[in-house]
Specification:
- The chain folds into two domains: 145 residues, Rossmann fold; 124 residues, Rossmann fold.
- Helix content is 34%, strand content 32%.
- Helix 3 runs parallel beside helix 4 and helix 4 packs across helix 9.
- The protein is globular.
- It starts with a strand and ends with a strand.
């Protein structure tokens, strides 16, 4: 599994970082932490190699802090992301000057920290494609909003345009219940395992919500939903199965989903994807006061 943590410099990003730590500890995923700087770098280049990166941008300090918080979760010597094979190597800073620098390699799992420059949404999505990410995690403002401080639309755009799953973490109540909304979409084993991971991390119970259209659902979907129910139950997860009309979905969000985690499957055959526009899905995400996990 490969996780991309997309961050800005605000407190909600640090809050979301804790979810990254939890998932990384449980899954041993490859992790990339990325931020998009506001300003362009001043670079000295020698032979096609950056010999220095001069940038007065708070994003760099934030990325340093996030890396240290992430690595600091484990005791020294126990982190699968901690490089342990350290030795001195000669590196060139100019064509006529070489310097001996201590270089550490040998971590069991990858942890990369990157800063990109340009349009925030485009750069985050580009990074997710280049790293072949399975999941993007990002924080956003809590309550009936889901915004970024400097570029408010970032979370909604990422959810709408990402090719992989997205976990929007709001500074909200603890995740004691997961509302997993399913319909006619083909659900992958990987997405079910993601729900299982979230349940394990938060010791949550699951409301399995079957979404219907015109009080109907394809006959072959009933046993399929039962199979998903049985799968979760076999993992010793407390799970209940309920059905809601798709037209009642937004009132359901407002009236019942007050805390916990809303999980939505957004495949090509999804009722949500077919009956609502991207802008409407964005409204659902902002309407919901909880964190949201969009699975693809």
């Amino acid at each position: 599994m490969r996780i991309l943590f997309a961050a800005d410099t605000m407190p909600y990003s640090e809050y979301a970082l804790q979810e990254l730590v939890n998932l990384a500890e449980n899954t041993l995923a490859g992790v990339t932490i990325v931020g998009v700087a506001k300003s362009s770098p001043s670079r000295d280049v020698q032979g096609g190699v950056f010999s220095s990166l001069k940038l007065d941008d708070p994003m760099l300090n934030a990325l340093d802090r996030y890396r240290e918080i992430f690595l600091g979760h484990w005791e020294k010597g126990e982190s699968p992301y901690e490089a342990s094979n350290c030795k001195y190597e000669w590196l060139t800073s100019r064509s006529t000057v070489w310097e001996q620098i201590k270089v550490c390699r040998g971590s069991f799992k990858d942890l990369k920290v990157k800063v990109r420059f340009g349009n925030v949404v485009k750069e985050i999505l580009a990074e997710s494609r280049e790293t072949d990410s399975d999941l993007i995690i990002l924080g956003c403002t809590k309550g009936p909003q889901c915004l970024w401080e400097d570029v408010p639309y970032v979370p909604e755009k990422i959810v709408n345009e990402a090719e992989c799953s997205v976990f929007l973490v709001k500074e909200a109540h603890p995740i004691n219940k997961i509302y997993a909304c399913l319909d006619e979409t083909n659900i992958t084993q990987e997405s079910l395992e993601m729900i299982n991971q979230m349940v394990t991390i938060h010791r949550a119970e699951v409301d399995l919500i079957g979404l219907t259209k015109g009080m109907g659902i394809k006959a072959d979907v009933y046993p399929w939903l039962e199979k998903v129910h049985d799968y979760l139950e076999s993992k010793n997860i407390k799970v209940s199965l309920k059905y809601y009309e798709i037209s009642d979905f937004e009132p359901f969000l407002k009236s019942e989903v007050k805390e916990g985690l809303l999980a939505l499957w957004m495949g090509k055959k999804s009722l949500l994807d077919r009956f609502f526009s991207k802008s409407t899905i964005g409204r659902f995400i902002k309407t919901c006061s909880t964190s949201v996990l969009v699975l693809r």
